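Protocol step 4 of 5: obtain the predicted structure for the target chain.
Materials: sequence only (see below). No template structures provided, no constraints applied. The aim of this step is simply to have a reference model before the mutagenesis design in step 5. Sequence pasted as it appears in the construct record:
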Amino acid sequence: MGIPDFVHRGNTEQLSKWADRLDAFTFALDAIDADDPFRFCEDAWEIWQSAAAADPPPMTSPAVLVVLEGLRALAHAMTVATLDYYRTPDVTDRMTVATVRTALGANLDGIRGDCERWLGHEAPAADEIRARCMSILSGMQAANESGDELRAEHAPAGAPARGSLDTGFVYDKVCALSEADNKRYREAYDRLRRMLDRELLQHICDGADALTDVLAAIVHELEADRMLQSDEDAMDECKRRIRSAVLSVTSALRIHREQTTAAAARTFGVDSAEANTVRRLFNDLTRSSCDYGWLEELRDALQHGDIDAVTYHFPARLDGRARADVFLNVEHLSRLGPRAGRISARSELAGATADTSIVTMLTATLPKVKAVQELLDPLLFPDVAEDVSVVKEFICRFGGGDGMRALHSAAGFTGGRLTPPRLSPRVLAFVQGFQARGHSA
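Step 4 output (structure tokens):
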């Protein structure tokens, strides 16, 4: 019984696709910015292995030989560079990145020639493909072990190992990942990452730091006499820089509120208990913190180009030291009519009766916003324990610590939706210490 035509068509499509990827990979080698052959090989390995992990070809397709032969070519390049490094005492005589790139390109051209031959004539049979796969994997493992022995023999005690590629990465484990498992691992990891990053809150902190930096830079310019307060144009430019920084941090406060509320509504429903709780937490923050409410009102004014919403303080240098600060213009804001979509009623903001330093207001507000975030996290991420368990399963599936190091090289390059997640140190630390903090994973 002959092999069905659709099998041949499928293999041809896979082979053609990976031939194109090999061309793109070979072209991308020129864009790798590496200082030495080892970094070049490591970066090239990450690129090619990431593509294989994201979309592994069937083990019965000749395309799998393209993938594995590419890995073998990279492992060979690293082995050659390692031998040269330890056997060539004079640094000036050692192989350069360009030398390794040329040799690697020649090997990849040979693989590309095999692709052309298989596309134009009969491709290897499934049994031959499996046999060659086993031979390639065994060869790479042996080369890796030989490299380890060479490094152990020649490397000085305590010196970092050079030329170590994780060729022991278990290719068939990545291939065995189903789409459902890959999706489950990535989504659990992404939820933990988002919870730990607290990106919206970090934008507020970054904005507050940026405002402080702008004021400090202006003080430095005044003290160095690079700018005179009598120079009207220069002082106008200072005020513009300050306003921009104030608008940035107050906008970050508004975005934190709006996007957090929207995320709760999107995840749980607009009228869900969780979404209503999030809205209540922010409303309580506005009522309990006059500074928070005024900062949001200030954002509205600056957003509409109202430059009188703030005042500036550049006091005389009586002690020889310059100062710079920016104040909320309470009287001006109190006279403004209500804006469409404003968050707070000005009657609730009567606590501020005099102009107040915006830096002081932010210093008082940030701890309260962070306290609200501590209440928001359990609401927005109720399945932390389950997500930790899923990520632990993912880690164990690839052999614990060694597997994690392999995945650091294998994942994340293509950015594909189902690419195994790149495991960041902060997420790994959280997962590994989760039970130690009294939680139950």
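Step 4 remarks: The first helix runs from residue 5 to 28. The longest strand covers residues 310-313.
Proceed to step 5.
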